[in-house]
Amino acid sequence: MVTKCLRSLNGLFLILCAAATTFPLLNVLATSFSGSTAILSGEVFLWPVDWTMTAFSNLFKDGQLMNAMKNTVIITVAGTIMQMTATTLAAYSLSKTRLKGRRIALLLILFTMMFGSGLIPMFLLLKNLHILNTFWAIWLPGLISAYNLFVMKSSFEGLPGELEESATIDGASDLTIFTRIVIPLSKPVLAAISLFYAVGLWNVYAPALYFITDSSKMPLTVKLYQMIQLPDSNLLDSSDLSFVPPEGMKAAAIIITVLPILCLYPFLQKYFVKGVLLGSIKG
Amino acid sequence: MEDLAVVETVAGGRVPSSKKRNRLLYYLGRDRYLYLFLLPALVFYLVFKYSPLYGELIAFKDFQIMKGIWNSPWVGLKHFNDLLSSQDFWQVFRNTMLLNVYKLVFVFPAPIILALMLNEVRFNGFKRLIQNLLYLPHFISWVVLGGVIVAVLSPSTGIINTLLEKGFGIEPVYFMAHSGWWPVVFTFSSIWQSAGWGTILYLAAMATIDPQLYEAAKIDGASKLRQIWHVTLPGIRPTIAILLILQMGQITDVGFEQVYNLQNEAVFGVSDVISTYVYRMGLQAAQYSYSTAVGLFQGVIALILMFAVNKITKAMGENGLW
């Protein structure tokens, strides 16, 4: 009896936690579709009041946010491809114990997980390489995440060795083994790591803030931050017929930024969990 | 060459020549693809992880952008003296430590408690739904989370203040601009963003606990809570230890994005931390040498802390990180 009571309390508490986690997001979603009077009088809770799309059409009319969206898509797609290429190749190479110099390479990588260089030295480096204010300033400094590299390496090490041995006997080179055997067998881990990289790039903020000052090259996150930080009066333009209060505009911009993740999340989240667990098994 | 390599590999990788140079060439030839694969990563680590360490030198110099890193004059520990005697720095340092202490005390246990509760749920569909909802904020940028928090807590239109006013007749509170409330908001936002995702590792650790232990405890008459205390918690102790070390290693580093997206000028006194300070002094005020010194100071302390905590954890009988 006591156990049963505890169990339902437990379930109730978890429901409350999940609700508290999602309500703020739902509230902003509702605000983005609500009419101005409802927003200003604080009537919007979890469902839009006086349904309208004006905030979104205003944002789409303003080319800046669309340009930022384009930048973010380029940064995410091209960046993920580069990160995956570099990480996968290195992880495969480092998964081979016969490789001379492997230990030194692993130690070099491990050390960077404990001690990173400062912001200013990185800034000066990018300046000397003349890639400030280009997407390269986002792509290159974050090309490989040591954590992802180790996850992938241990996953490659877990592949059955017999397959590769017999391929070697048949005269296959490391290149052939890699493209014909290792890659096809590693689809789950490749999917998980690509997703981690892609989400990271979609959400990229600090590097973009540090290294990209050219307004036309800023990603969505930086533009969104500027919008959120604007004093409310700058967004107010009451002469405009399609008036939306700043809270509504900000809510719509937030939703545009987070929408792709919200839409894909239900389908992809099992890969995320898999990715984390893969990493934790071998530490 | 290829044939030879294959034969040698099959024969156990015997080296054909005793001379060192030849041996090196042999390995380079045999594993040429592996070395080629490693090349991009190697270049990346040398250029973007190790070469900036050379740039850290400007912490000991008066860096002038025209002269470059090497030709700028040495000033020894001047910048470190400056920062140790600067009030700003100590305030920022104190804030960083304080916010991290809040994280350690309130945020670190949150996923453990959540995982313990999730672990007791018997109905799988319900469990998965709750988990998915709890994980969600982890995938959202701090810009968005910060924007949502500011919107929800707004004194004029925010839902929280509306509820407080209508439900309890409480005057609207400007949470984000109140030095007393800001750390509370910060702490809650950390729990919001990370507690759900943090449960994954604990749940995985719980799944590996031998069910026989629970059986034995049950036979001995242990209640549910005692089972959690005597079986589940000891079972996840190593996981807790490792995550605690990692957390301690970050005690001098509050994530830049979280603080930057939540702070505003009204609460600089409690919200300005080392990373935001370095950004403001370094990139916005162009005090390159000084802010590099601040960053270096932070990095070294973090490194020392990590070693210290690892040692303590080992002394307590856990595995530690290395």
TrEMBL record, chain A:
Q: What is its main location?
A: membrane
**A biological process (GO) annotation for this entry?**
transmembrane transport
Q: Which UniProt keywords apply?
A: Cell membrane, Membrane, Transmembrane, Transmembrane helix, Transport
Q: How does it sit in the membrane?
A: Multi-pass membrane protein
Q: Which GO terms describe its cellular component?
A: plasma membrane
Regions crossing the membrane: 73-92, 104-125, 131-150, 189-212, 251-268
What is the official name of this protein in its record? ABC transmembrane type-1 domain-containing protein
What lineage is on file? Bacteria, Bacillati, Bacillota, Bacilli, Bacillales
UniProtKB/TrEMBL annotation, chain B:
Main subcellular localisation: membrane
Q: Which Pfam families match?
A: BPD_transp_1
Q: Which UniProt keywords apply?
A: Cell membrane, Membrane, Transmembrane, Transmembrane helix, Transport
Gene3D superfamilies listed in its UniProt record: MetI-like
PROSITE patterns, per the entry: ABC_TM1
**Where do the coiled-coil regions begin and end?**
none
| GO terms under cellular component | plasma membrane
Q: Which residues cross the membrane?
A: 33-51, 97-118, 139-160, 180-207, 288-309
Q: According to its record, how does it sit in the membrane? A: Multi-pass membrane protein
Q: Where in the cell is the protein located? A: Cell membrane
Every ABC transmembrane type-1 domain range: 93-309
Q: Does the keyword Transmembrane helix apply?
A: yes
Q: Which SUPFAM superfamilies match?
A: MetI-like
**A single GO BP annotation from the record?**
transmembrane transport
Q: Which PANTHER family has this protein been placed in?
A: BLL4140 PROTEIN (PTHR43227:SF11)
Q: Family per UniProt?
A: Belongs to the binding-protein-dependent transport system permease family.
Protein name in the entry: ABC transmembrane type-1 domain-containing protein
* Organism of origin: Paenibacillus agaridevorans
